[in-house]
Amino acid sequence: QVRLVESGGGLVQPGGSLRLSCAASGFLLRSYSMKWYRQAPGKERELVASISTVNGAMYYIDSVKGRFTISRDIYKNTVYLQMNSLTPEDTGVYHCNARVGFDYWGQGTQVTVSS
Predict the structure, then answer these.
(1) What is the reported pLDDT for 54?
(2) Which residues, in sequence order, are bridge partners of residue 47?
(3) Cα(27)–Cα(3) distance, rounded to whole angstroms?
(4) 34-49 residues labelled b (16+ CB within 10 A) or e (exposed)
(5) Is 99 strand, coil or helix?
(6) What is the pLDDT, as a whole number, of residue 9?
(7) Tell me: the pLDDT tens digits for 24-77?
(8) Helix-then-strand count for the chain, H and E
């Protein structure tokens, strides 16, 4: 049974950092592209970052380039999103995603950037 469980969200001041984790079970994430999405209040969900199975190639939305880093630990079967220099515009619910036949989503973790 495929399952994704996110953690690591919270309230942080502008300029702060958080590291999100997405623990995967039921499949080996090294064999699938993994993605982080976020949904801000009143906005559509957007793809923030992804990591491919092809040489671990990474993609980032322009607004997070240079601040966010996606990585994976194949031994822990976990994907991470390191978020630095956070701004209020980064506020939202962050979900990880894997397409293992079907699209699977975690329950999400709330990130709030506010002073």
Answers:
(1) 72
(2) 37
(3) 8
(4) bbbbbeeeeeeeeebb
(5) strand
(6) 97
(7) 999 998 899 999 999 998 999 999 999 998 788 999 999 999 999 999 999 999
(8) 0, 11
Share of the chain above pLDDT 70, in %: 100
Q: Which two tokens stand for residue 106?
A: 């975690």
| Unique residue bearing structure tokens 């990130």 | 111
As a whole number of angstroms, the distance between CA 86 and CA 98 comes to 25
Contact in structure between 108 and 92 (CB atoms under 8 Å): no
Average pLDDT in the chain: 96
Q: What is the DSSP letter of 44?
A: -
At residue 102, what is the residue type?
F
Question: Which tokens hold the place of 110?
Answer: 């709330």
